[in-house]
Amino acid sequence: MEPEKESARGLAQVEGYLLWNAEVAEARRHARLFADAMPWLTTAQREEVERVYVTDRVDLSKEMLTRIAARAVELREEYSARYDRLRARCVAVSVLTVGALCGTCAALTLVGR
Length: 113
Description:
Layout: H1 3-36, H2 43-112
């Protein structure tokens, strides 16, 4: 693998790691806020509520990221197909235009003789 691609891949992995840890930290913060709204909970109950909240939020985040990643793949395939069709059309129009110009030049040459 080329060094630039390897570096880009490594940076993407680090970015993903940092973003995921930020998501987990945010889930923990929200879990504490949620448990704070229930001051009657015992310490054990509070810990359990926070644990369940974080687990649920992290699971939802994983599901959301999986859906987003799948959609990104679908869009990449769709846009790649559109790009390929557009490129084929542009090449065809270019070939036809050059052919028409060559034909016109040939006809003008014949007429001018």
